[in-house]
Amino acid sequence: xxxxPGPDLxxxxxxxxxxxxxxxxxxxPADGDAxxxxxxxxxxxxxxxxxxxxxxxxxxxxxTDNPYALVASLVRExxxxxxxxxxxxxxxxxxxxxxxxxxxxxxxxxxxxLRMIKSVDEIAHLRAAGxxxxxxxxxxxxxxxxxxxxxxxxxxxxxxxxxxxHERVDFVIVGSGPNGASPHHELSDRRIEVGDPxxxxxxxxxxxxxxxxxxxxxxxxxxxxxxxxxxxxxxxxQEAAVSSVRPGVTAESVDxxxxxxxxxxxxxxxxIHRTGHGIGLETHEEPYIVKGNNEELRAGMAFSVEPGIYLxxxxxxxxxxxxxxxxxxxxxxxxxxxxxxxxxxxFSG
Amino acid sequence: xxxxPGPDLxxxxxxxxxxxxxxxxxxxPADGDAxxxxxxxxxxxxxxxxxxxxxxxxxxxxxTDNPYALVASLVRExxxxxxxxxxxxxxxxxxxxxxxxxxxxxxxxxxxxLRMIKSVDEIAHLRAAGxxxxxxxxxxxxxxxxxxxxxxxxxxxxxxxxxxxHERVDFVIVGSGPNGASPHHELSDRRIEVGDPxxxxxxxxxxxxxxxxxxxxxxxxxxxxxxxxxxxxxxxxQEAAVSSVRPGVTAESVDxxxxxxxxxxxxxxxxIHRTGHGIGLETHEEPYIVKGNNEELRAGMAFSVEPGIYLxxxxxxxxxxxxxxxxxxxxxxxxxxxxxxxxxxxFSG
Lengths: 349, 349
Hints:
The structure is a homodimer.
Chain A: E1 2-3, H1 7-13, E2 25-27, E3 35-39, H2 43-48, E4 57-61, H3 67-75, E5 80-83, H4 89-98, E6 103-106, H5 108-116, H6 120-137, H7 140-143, H8 150-163, E7 168-176, E8 197-205, E9 214-220, H9 225-243, H10 251-264, E10 276-278, E11 285-289, E12 302-305, E13 308-311, E14 315-318, E15 321-325, E16 330-332, E17 341-343
Parallel strand pairs in A: 3-4, 5-6, 9-17
Antiparallel strand pairs in A: 1-2, 2-3, 7-8, 8-9, 10-11, 12-15, 13-14, 15-16
């Protein structure tokens, strides 16, 4: 298994290496001890992260060495190497060329059970991330004002994400009015108007490496009745999906629980994405809560439940919580209200 | 050429796509028109970014489709595909398996001349990034205080990076005392002490997508004489390297210009990394300013000049500016003083 800097390396070793063009690569043989190939100047950071204490030998290389040949010498006569899913093509193809007779496959399938079932410590980290992003949502009323642009609001949110204890801002979506109908719209210079519904989907990375991700939809003043009607449907759908989570049910059944409520209300065509994604050291990881995924949920799995309804060109709504499967049900890690949050547009705080 | 979300896609199309597990891929044939394969829910964002206006057809796919087969159908009978250097292994190997008879190579060599020579607009974006990070360095005296941890200082710096106009914080290195001797140390809970030299290397991404990166070394109170002596050597080395930049000289000659000053002063063994890296839509890109790179510098190239001297276990220093090669010399995009910045430890601002 060949693991370059990214979530798999962090998971396996606790070493948060900066992804660089210079090769850092953990070499894990099927039998025997693991080794870390790293640029000489990264060796102190790897040692400080406790890589050596794990019994992993560190092979530093100098600026003019060929680190791919060094990895190949450690792989020896193996016929298959499994590569970290996040390894970049520049390194995938350099490793292929350094070991042309070795078949490359993905390490994801080998690591998925380990990474998908969160330990008690990992759940504590995700819980802290959930509290931090909830704290940001509690401040959104101070930022959303008619006349401000999405970008101005987004800049305030980004600062609040850091102040809430995150180490990094991962994404800030402020979808006002018609922009709310594009689920992955980020920020624009559109000015928020009285009557706009606004989708706010935000997340960051905590110092632990674990991620937050939560969406709430706000109304700046009095939103159109058409909107408030389908918002109530969405709220029921999200609650139905969360309530359906427990060990033994399939991932797709949670998607179906949300979708059936929305379908019955006649908005099925407007719910244009899956219901959720796993979360941990990555914002999007397994399990995916989507039709066709018959993976059975197990205690310790963590994922988003985030149905949405989008009326193209007009407005949209999404409600998203991160939940963890417990031994007998579900725990929600996001706990701000699901009721439509109406912001008084005349308030100047 | 197959280009997934990342700096190459942004460069070629202006589309800042979120890297997702779902496949988004620009397909550029050697002859004929380009096409963009994208998840259905990303199509509005791709259209908003002007992809359609470039004459690129957009092929949206539904959650249950196989997008790799769709890309293969667009590649048709090509014998070679060039992949974006930043494409992740999960997509590299899925594309390999969807087109087993097609040889994969890297797109980097095809795009390097385009991306390495910055246009007038790109230089303006880098200049704005340089001013923004200079503004953060001007505030460091407010953050560095004896008794504060590197992490506390780093959190303040991260907020200042956003306030200065960056859209994202890319890295915050605060290397105090012995941590300054590890060039890629980030942040720790070490408390800053009176007499510490502190290396502050920071950067972020502007709304344009272009990056900043600048290092200054500070002294909190009276630093050891051993340190101030080699700091003066470093300052001369950095200035010698910047002064050597002009069209027609090689990248390695700029490295040699810094290194010879440091070697002559007897600190050659303590300058443990190359002198610099290109910068643009990525923090590290070509050209690399390193021994062995005989690439001739051309007007429009942008890169860092950042020699350092590191005394393991004691302290270190680095000075880094981003410079652009002009038609007859060099322009520095970072312009805060290179003199050692001594912070009065008794000041409480």
